[in-house]
């Protein structure tokens, strides 16, 4: 994604190089090796670049003011835009790794502000132990064809589907009890979810765990309900690339009013995409707002 700051920095670097060139050129000209016409040409080039740099800096300042104005507008209108946006919706939250309290607070606030309820939360322990998984699933009819390293992605898909659909969850139960997969949990398994939010709090994984997690994300997004990968603006290891690979929507600034609004709009069924403030936010800051206020439930 184009970043004006980098362009300004590159112009500044060129500007500095030309200044150095002029100083060197003037020193050489004192020895009669560079004529005054050459020095004048370099001086004109510096003046031209200075004007361009000043112009770009002005544009950058204007854009910064626009961003501040937009942020202020969202902050002031957020309560109205959020009100009943997800009224009556049941949303599952899945952490890959330990629960991060800050991110959990941001997601919970978005759900509460929009009138939704968290139907369940599960924090999954990684990396996985494939042998332990196989032992836990041994004799489980629902795990037929899902054991072994070659089937880790399919196993993850089945687990993701159970986490969203609820009801009987033999894969989740077997791995939670026999392989200690679930580190923290809140809420039961019975009710289906109307949407799901996934948050990865661990560093990128390797080997079999990578395949398992890709399958998990794919499974979370394969149930006909909105599925969103969320993270905070200062996330140390962004997971948006793998969420995108698995077909999930993403929000990379859920700790802000704009990010929480983007999350609730996606969970309400607005067009899937990748939203936020980072380079990965290819679709802008927010999904399109519904055309009528009635979409927010009054």
Second rung of CATH, namely the architecture of the largest domain: 3-Layer(aba) Sandwich
Major sheet description = 7 strands, mixed
Which residue ranges are poorly predicted, with pLDDT under 50 across at least 5 consecutive positions?
A: 1-20, 26-34, 293-298
Q: What is the strand content?
A: 5-15%
Number of helices: 9
Overall shape: it is globular
Tally of discrete structural domains: 2
Q: Which bin fits the share of residues in helices?
A: 40-55%
Structure class: alpha/beta
What is the level 1 CATH name of the largest domain?
Answer: Alpha Beta
**N/C terminus separation:** 37 Å
- Largest sheet, order of strands side by side? 3-2-1-4-5-6-7
Radius of gyration computed on alpha carbons: 26 Å
Average pLDDT, rounded to a whole number, is: 84
Q: Give the SSE string.
A: HHEHEHHHEEHEHEHE
Can you put this structure into words, describing what you see?
This protein is 49% helix and 12% strand. It contains nine helices and seven strands; from the N terminus they run ααβαβαααββαβαβαβ. Helix 8 links the parallel strand 5 (227-230) and strand 6 (249-251). Residues 1-20, 26-34 and 293-298 have low confidence and may be disordered.
List the helices and strands and how they pair.
Blueprint: H1 4-29, H2 36-82, E1 90-96, H3 101-113, E2 117-124, H4 130-137, H5 152-165, H6 170-178, E3 182-186, E4 195-200, H7 208-220, E5 227-230, H8 240-245, E6 249-251, H9 257-267, E7 274-275
Parallel strand pairs: 1-2, 1-4, 4-5, 5-6, 6-7
Antiparallel strand pairs: 2-3
Helix pairs in contact: 1-2, 2-9, 3-9, 4-6, 5-7
């Amino acid at each position: 994604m184009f970043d004006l700051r980098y362009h300004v920095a590159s112009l500044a670097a060129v500007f500095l190089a030309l200044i150095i060139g002029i100083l060197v050129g003037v020193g050489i000209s004192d020895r009669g090796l560079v004529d005054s016409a050459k020095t004048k040409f370099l001086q004109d080039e510096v003046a031209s670049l200075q004007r361009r740099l000043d112009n770009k800096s002005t544009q950058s300042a204007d854009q910064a003011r626009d961003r501040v104005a937009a942020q202020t507008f969202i902050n002031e209108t957020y309560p109205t835009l959020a009100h009943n946006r997800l009224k009556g919706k049941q949303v599952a939250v899945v952490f890959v790794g330990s629960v991060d309290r800050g991110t959990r607070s941001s997601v919970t606030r978005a759900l509460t502000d929009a009138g939704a309820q968290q139907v369940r939360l599960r924090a999954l322990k990684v990396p996985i132990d494939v042998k332990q998984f196989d032992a836990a699933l041994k004799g489980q009819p629902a795990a037929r064809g899902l054991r072994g390293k070659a089937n880790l992605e399919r196993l993850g898909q089945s687990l993701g589907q159970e986490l969203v659909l609820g009801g009987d969850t033999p894969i989740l139960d077997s791995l939670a009890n026999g392989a200690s997969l679930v580190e923290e949990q809140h809420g039961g398994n019975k009710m289906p979810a109307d949407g799901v939010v996934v948050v990865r709090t661990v560093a990128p994984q390797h080997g079999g765990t990578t395949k398992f997690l890709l399958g998990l994300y794919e499974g979370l997004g394969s149930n006909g309900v909105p599925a969103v990968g969320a993270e905070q603006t200062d996330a140390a290891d962004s997971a948006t690339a793998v969420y995108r690979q698995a077909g999930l929507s993403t929000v990379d600034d859920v700790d802000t009013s704009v990010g929480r609004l983007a999350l609730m709009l996606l969970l309400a069924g607005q067009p899937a995409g990748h939203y936020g403030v980072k380079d990965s936010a290819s679709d802008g800051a927010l999904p399109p707002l519904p055309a009528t206020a009635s979409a927010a439930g009054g």
